[in-house]
Design goal:
This protein has 8 helices and 7 strands, in the order βαβαααβααβαβββα. A hairpin with a 3-residue loop joins strand 6 and strand 7. Helix content is 35%, strand content 21%. By secondary structure, the protein is of the alpha/beta class. It has a single domain, classed as Flavin prenyltransferase-like (Rossmann fold). Strands 1, 2, 3, 4, 5, 6 and 7 form a 7-stranded mixed beta sheet that branches.
Length: 195
């Protein structure tokens, strides 16, 4: 019997402030729902409060509630029980920015997203990371390397998103997110990792 079999078929799904990626991320939540997952949305401070040329924070919150049936969790108090109370089988962070990647690598749990990760990891539950960062092959490279070596972190396959105009930028193939989650729940990193 898997350690996950007693848990509800629920995944926590955290979004960070890579605003240009939101339109590609939201359909993945719908895909998870179609596969029978209950989804608990989590928002970083940036994703949950900032209006940008890609949309308003209020519109994102409304869309997440429409997709999941749950209001987004966006405080430390709301996310802390995710792991200890076994509220979810896994945490997905999509999009995961370079800032969040670096906080995770440094063990800093000062944001709703990083505390959600710490909460899940304390019970050895998987954290699935979908990168979207302009400095993945520069400033955030060391953080990426650190997390690739850590137990219970799994990555949605990624590659350079525009190697000529943005040579340091990395982006995950979000279409592979549901399959990455399935593999992570079996303790396996989906392959190939690099696209």
């Amino acid at each position: 019997m898997s350690q996950y079999s007693a848990l509800p078929r629920t995944v926590a799904f955290a979004m960070c402030g890579s605003f240009c990626t939101f339109d590609a991320v939201l359909p993945q939540i719908a895909r998870l729902r179609a596969r029978g997952w209950e989804v608990l949305p989590v928002l970083s401070a940036s994703a949950g409060t900032l209006d940008t040329r890609f949309g308003t924070a209020a519109a994102l919150r409304a869309r997440l509630e429409e997709l999941t049936g749950h209001a987004p969790l966006d405080t430390l108090q709301q996310v802390e029980p995710l792991g200890p109370k076994r509220m979810a089988r896994a945490l997905v962070i999509a999009p995961c920015t370079g800032t969040t990647l670096s906080l995770l690598a440094g063990g800093i749990s000062s944001t709703p997203v990083t505390l959600a990760a710490k909460s899940m990891l304390r019970g050895s539950l998987p954290v699935v990371v979908a990168l979207s960062t302009n400095d993945g092959l520069s400033g955030s490279a060391a953080s990426l390397a650190a997390l690739l070596q850590r137990k219970n972190y799994y990555f949605v396959p990624f590659g350079q998103d525009d190697s000529y105009k943005k040579p340091h930028s990395l982006k995950s193939d979000l279409a592979l997110l549901p399959d990455t989650l399935d593999c992570a729940l079996k303790g396996t990193q989906i392959q190939p990792l690099l696209l």
